[in-house]
């Protein structure tokens, strides 16, 4: 038996790594879309369809249904990703800001629904209303966020 064959047999790490890379390469597709400039127009909330009881929709899916304009959704998503990482129970330990959009105080979101602590759709509605009233749209809020690091 040759020394190189023994080394190949004795090196399972390379075999496993090669297999993982091959599996990842065949199972994953990466695509990038060119960035597009968005105009700050007021985003209108669409009424989300009811999710099946067995499979609750993710907060992102709910937001996409409520914000059908792609540019407005992307701006909203950028803010939420930075503020809470799409965690609807995220709490800022120093300020007390709460939820997807980090409302301060979180209880402000009660104006959108009594389930504001637990329902991402209620938080999205409140956040969208806030962004539209204060910045004109989610794109306007995102532009402000980029310039200031907060909104």
Automatic annotation (TrEMBL):
Record-linked Gene3D superfamilies: 1.10.530.10
Database matches in SUPFAM superfamilies: Lysozyme-like (SSF53955)
Keyword Cytoplasm: no
Protein keywords: Signal
Annotated ranges, domain Transglycosylase SLT: 73-143
A matching Pfam family: SLT
Domain of life: Bacteria
Signal peptide positions (record): 1-37
Protein name: Transglycosylase SLT domain-containing protein
Upper taxonomic lineage: Bacteria, Bacillati, Actinomycetota, Actinomycetes, Kitasatosporales
């Amino acid at each position: 038996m040759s020394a190189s064959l023994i080394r190949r047999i004795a090196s399972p790490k390379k075999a496993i790594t090669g297999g993982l890379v091959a599996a990842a390469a065949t199972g994953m597709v990466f695509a990038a879309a060119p960035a597009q400039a968005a105009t700050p127009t007021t985003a209108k909330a669409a009424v989300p369809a009811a999710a099946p009881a067995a499979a609750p929709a993710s907060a992102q899916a709910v937001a996409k249904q409520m914000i059908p304009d792609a540019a407005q959704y992307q701006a909203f998503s950028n803010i939420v990703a930075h503020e809470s990482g799409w965690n609807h129970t995220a709490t800022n330990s120093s300020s007390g800001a709460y939820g997807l959009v980090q409302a301060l105080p979180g209880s402000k979101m009660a104006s959108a629904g009594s389930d504001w602590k637990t329902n991402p759709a209620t938080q999205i509605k409140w956040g969208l209303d806030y962004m539209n009233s204060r910045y004109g749209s989610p794109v306007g809020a995102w532009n402000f966020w980029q310039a200031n690091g907060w909104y």
